[in-house]
Structure to design on (286 residues):
């Protein structure tokens, strides 16, 4: 049976317990197959782990059936949830050797003038003006946590590690960074730095 | 972390400026991105035009490496026909 032939949400809720159990099994198989494909470049992930991810994802999907609005195929929607589940678990296993103190201490240095040398983007006048405005914005507009989170991002620290250290959820961490970017952007606009100036800074 | 080196490198400063340039007042968070990513991925596969409501997702994917990683994995599954 292909995806199009099954009314997944209806079958997964079927009164007939045999039919319902068969649909649940079939969906677990679909998710497991998708995870195998998605993670086939990661030999460190075992088949047993893939099965655990598929099972965890299956429970999440069943729990959220009411949220499926039919704007994509059901299996695509379910696979997105399965990937979100699997990657969250895999990311937890990486990067464990940084403390919150180290992150905040490094973040403190973001408020120091030395963090942005005048000529870091080249010596021309517009770019120096941008760098100066950015330096002031970082020092005056951001909280210590926002500075630490931004620095973590710039150093390509995994986002989950940043949020774990700061003790926030993924959504709250995103909001923390979004608020920080917005504060910096508004401050740059106030300083007369335009979108064009910003563009020209990274089209070197 | 390299706290012993207090200066940002040019690529890091450019990355920061680029992040600021992409910033909008209203953005999708990761949950909203997950809510719409299946629809977005199917649109990408078939080249259909985007609904304005889910256009926000492109901006989120540029700024959020975790959602981007998950989105690329989803495309991989769709391309495999699974
Ligand atoms: Zn995200």
């Amino acid at each position: 049976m292909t995806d199009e032939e099954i009314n997944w949400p209806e079958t997964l809720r079927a009164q007939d317990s045999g039919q319902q159990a068969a649909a649940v099994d079939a969906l677990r198989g679909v998710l497991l197959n998708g995870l195998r494909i998605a993670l086939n470049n990661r030999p460190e992930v075992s088949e047993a782990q893939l099965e655990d991810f598929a099972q965890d994802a299956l429970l999440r999907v069943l729990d959220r059936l009411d949220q499926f609005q039919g704007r994509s195929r059901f299996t695509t929607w379910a696979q997105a949830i399965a990937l979100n589940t699997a990657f969250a678990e895999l990311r937890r296993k990486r990067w464990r050797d940084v403390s919150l103190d180290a992150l905040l201490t490094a973040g403190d240095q973001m408020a120091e003038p030395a963090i942005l040398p005048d000529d870091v983007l080249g010596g021309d006048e517009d770019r120096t003006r941008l760098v100066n405005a950015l330096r002031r914005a970082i020092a005056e507009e951001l909280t210590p946590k926002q500075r630490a989170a931004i620095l973590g991002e710039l150093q390509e620290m995994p986002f989950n590690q940043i949020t774990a250290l700061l003790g926030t959820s993924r959504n709250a961490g995103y909001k923390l960074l979004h608020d920080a970017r917005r504060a910096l952007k508004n401050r740059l606009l106030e300083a007369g730095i335009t979108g064009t100036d910003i563009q020209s800074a990274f089209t070197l | 972390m390299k706290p012993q080196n207090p200066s940002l490198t040019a690529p890091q400063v450019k990355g920061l400026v680029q992040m600021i340039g992409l910033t909008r007042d209203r953005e999708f968070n990761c949950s909203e991105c997950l809510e719409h990513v299946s629809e977005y991925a199917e649109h990408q596969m078939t080249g259909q035009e985007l609904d304005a409501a889910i256009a926000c997702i492109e901006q989120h994917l540029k700024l959020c490496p975790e959602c981007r990683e998950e989105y690329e994995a989803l495309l991989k599954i769709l391309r495999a026909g699974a």
Summary: Residues 26-81 of chain B form one domain. Chain B has four helices and no strands.
